[in-house]
Write a structure and sequence with these properties.
It is built from 15 helices and 17 strands. It is an alpha/beta fold and about 450 residues long.
């Protein structure tokens, strides 16, 4: 029986999700076999793993390929507001009718057997991608790499690993080297594995794992280099040198995401992507909830006039450092109060995320995340106090926190306000602000 709605289909898969996530590929491979192996009937694939910057790197590659005239499927997770954001078919988000249909087919193929939510929705995505023509598929790993549901694919055109840091330690290991080994599980024989790493241990582990698989490791510093200047990016590899513009996406770290995207497309042989298209992609790429400036909307109107409202869903130590550096760059241009509204899941390291903000903030407002285990707002506020930041309780939601910030603002410069720490919270902000991803 077909589902009445996308929501009922997704709820059905949530209800049958195994209590314990047993990372493996067997369950999904069996379901895909019953569906006719749609994962073997896909456009050429770019497979992307890593800890930080996956979404932005994917956004740059998509923009570059589309600027070159190629149609592109994209699979990402999690979504911010609507599940449809995870499946982009030849440039457009999947519609309700098709999404319900492919979810129903997966449900029928799974029968009464257990299947995780991500396995089921990945199978549905493969079905949709196999039914709509496109020139390329950019496929984001959900968790790790080696045993991730997306790793049922055979031979991608190119594999990409963004910077690895400590996250999901309960599944991937508690050292950067262990986690990098899991990420490197996407390596394939005779396929380029393009990587940019900021940890030497991660770089070494990925290189060794790639060579064991017979992949061709392509690492920053060895196989491609780049200098970032005030005017642009000077990129160089074995094919030659080129100059790229600085990204339109804010944050100095985005330049390296654009560099990695460029290296990935220059080290594959499936698609033609001229220099002009690479440059256009760097300028055109957009990615919600990653240092996103909300220049209009209901939430912005709650703040003092001419305030800046920024949104970022990052939640690990590297993400905290990136946002803190961005705050410093803003204050260097215009010194003004900086207020942070923060909610964070309880399985994330609050201390490592917040530590870089010491001495930077005028206030820190702790919030709950409804429906999820989270750090208590009082704990967030207390840790802020330890860093010398006035820590406060933001109330039950983002709206109340923004109203509190307005109430304590004086007649000085319009403040910078950041909502940080959780993609769940970021999605709620976009919904409340009526700025949905499209």
């Amino acid at each position: 029986m077909a589902f009445d709605s996308v929501e009922s289909a997704l709820e059905a898969f949530q209800s049958r999700h195994p209590r314990k996530i047993d990372l493996s590929l067997g369950r999904l491979e069996q379901v895909l076999s019953r569906l006719g192996d749609p994962h073997k009937n896909l456009p050429p694939i770019i497979h992307v793993a890593g800890t930080n910057g996956k979404g932005s790197t994917i956004a740059f590659m998509r923009a570059m390929l589309e600027a070159a005239g190629h149609s592109v499927h994209v699979y990402t997770s999690p979504h911010l507001v609507r599940f449809h954001e995870r499946i982009r078919l030849a440039g457009k988000l999947i519609d309700d009718g098709m999404l319900k249909d492919v979810l129903w087919q997966v449900d029928a193929a799974a029968g009464d057997e257990p299947i995780t939510f991500f396995e089921a929705t990945t199978a549905a995505a493969f079905l949709a991608f196999s039914q709509v023509p496109a020139d390329a598929l950019i496929l984001e790993v959900g968790l790790g790499g080696r045993l991730d549901a997306t790793n049922v694919i055979d031979r991608p055109a190119v594999s990409v690993i963004t910077p690895v840091s400590v996250d999901h330690v309960e599944f991937l290991g508690d050292t950067v080297s262990q986690i990098a080994g899991e990420k490197a599980g996407i390596a394939r024989k005779d396929t380029p594995l393009v990587s940019h790493q900021t940890h030497e241990d991660a770089a070494k582990k990925i290189d060794v794992a790639a060579r064991k698989k017979g992949a061709h490791p392509v690492a920053s510093g060895n196989h491609f280099t780049a200098d970032i200047t005030v005017d642009g990016i000077d990129y160089k590899d074995a094919k030659g040198a080129l100059t790229l513009p600085l990204p339109s996406l804010p944050g100095g770290f985005q330049a390296w995401n654009a560099i990695l995207a460029t290296a990935a497309l220059r080290h594959q042989t499936v698609w033609s992507v001229p220099e002009a298209s690479l440059s256009a992609g760097v300028r055109w790429a957009s990615w919600p909830a990653r240092l996103q400036l909300l220049s209009t909307g209901k939430l912005l109107r709650l703040l003092p006039k001419e305030s800046q409202l920024w949104l970022d869903g990052g939640h690990n130590a590297a993400a905290g450092a990136q946002v803190a550096n961005f705050v410093k760059s803003l204050k260097a241009k215009r010194d003004a109060p900086v207020h942070v509204v923060l909610g964070m899941l309880s399985n994330k390291d609050l201390a490592s995320y917040l530590s870089p903000f010491g001495g930077l903030l005028d206030s820190l407002w702790g919030l709950p995340i409804d429906g999820h285990d989270h750090h208590a707002p009082a704990s967030i506020a207390a840790f802020g106090q330890e860093l010398g930041i006035p820590g406060r309780l933001g109330g039950p939601d983002v709206i109340s926190a923004l109203k509190h910030i307005t109430a304590v603002s004086d007649d000085g410069p319009p403040p910078y306000v950041f909502v940080l720490g959780s993609l769940y919270m970021a999605g709620e902000v976009l919904r409340l602000n009526e700025t949905l991803p499209d």
